[in-house]
Design brief:
- It is a single chain.
- By secondary structure, this protein is α+β, with helices and mostly antiparallel strands.
- It has three domains: 99 residues, Helix Hairpins (Orthogonal Bundle); 49 residues, SH3 type barrels (Roll); 81 residues, Alpha-Beta Plaits, CATH 3.30.70.100.
- The protein is 50% helix and 24% strand.
- It has a five-stranded antiparallel beta sheet. A three-stranded antiparallel beta sheet has the order 6-8-7, covered by helices on one side. Strands 9-10 form a two-stranded antiparallel ribbon.
- Strand 1 and strand 2 form a beta hairpin.
- Helix 2 runs antiparallel to helix 3 and helix 7 crosses helix 8.
- The longest helix has 37 residues.
Length: 280
């Protein structure tokens, strides 16, 4: 090719420039093909190793972007572009872009950390950024939560990462708590035994850690019982609501009263006086 260019009566510098441009183009084309093959191979390897799908996509895109950037720099250098001015221009452009996109870069940085450290995964029920919902997707810029009423919340990753994250699914079990008041004249031991019987009758309540019922407080109009039990996470709401209904029905059947606030009206010398609230 060099002899062909000389026959065209081109100067040595022109020939060198053309050859460098051709070499740069070859580097770019071959490099793009090789980068795609390498990143696809790495993606398949991570899939076989059972990496998280979100992490696989992020690492593949990161590796592909890094390879493309290296190819562009190599091609420009081969084409004769001086590296030092190019690096200075890229640095200045990066600084300007960074200053104008501080919020977006913060979301991006937190997105990378969330994907790498994975405090939650798709399908987990979490509290993040003050919002409770099921994780539908984790992107580099935001996390999508589906709320209990099927609304969708798009939460910026900076807000997710800068606040406490509560993952209700990670341990596989959850503890529910119920507070039920009984009358002062009722037998506390009998009431607690009735709740224990309900624990034993429900197979969904885990035996370890053991469930329990405790006397929590002597309130104004009732004795407050605290009922605690561990269940599987996917059965949490069903067991909690069932237990509350069963406690009410069993107490009613066994003569255990559940007081409700009342207000006593007394008439003193023709003037109505409101008394304190008391239980029934």
């Amino acid at each position: 090719m060099h002899d062909y260019l000389k026959r065209l009566d081109l100067s040595e510098s022109s020939i060198a420039l053309i050859l460098n441009l051709v070499a740069a183009l070859v580097i770019l084309v071959v490099g793009l093909w090789a980068a795609g093959r390498v990143t696809n191979f790495a993606s398949r390897a991570m899939t076989r190793a059972r990496f998280d799908p979100t992490l696989i996509g992020f690492l593949r895109n990161l590796a592909h972007g890094a390879l493309i950037a290296m190819l562009i720099v190599a091609a420009l250098t081969k084409a004769g572009v001086p590296f030092a001015p190019m690096a200075a221009a890229l640095g200045a452009a990066s600084l300007a872009i960074g200053l104008s996109l501080q919020g977006s870069l913060s979301n991006l940085a937190w997105g990378v950390l969330l994907i790498l450290f994975r405090p939650f995964r798709v399908g987990d029920f979490i509290r993040a950024g003050g919002i409770d919902g099921t994780v539908e997707s984790i992107n580099l810029m935001h996390t999508v939560l589906v709320l209990a009423d099927n609304r969708e919340a798009v939460v910026p990753n900076a807000k997710v990462g800068s606040d406490a994250i509560i993952n209700f699914n990670r341990r596989g079990t959850r503890r529910f708590e119920l507070r039920v008041g009984i009358g002062y004249d009722d037998d506390i031991g009998k009431a607690m035994a009735l709740v224990d019987a309900l624990f034993q009758a429900d197979e969904r309540i885990l035996k370890s850690p053991a469930p329990g019922v405790f006397t929590e407080a002597l309130a104004d109009s009732s004795v407050t019982l605290l009922i605690r039990a561990f269940v599987r996470t996917d059965e949490f709401w069903a067991v909690q609501t069932d237990m509350l209904r069963k406690v009410k029905e069993r107490f009613l059947a066994e003569g255990i009263t559940i007081p409700f606030p009342q207000r006593e009206l007394r008439v003193v010398q023709g003037v109505a006086v409101m008394g304190d609230e008391r239980g029934s």
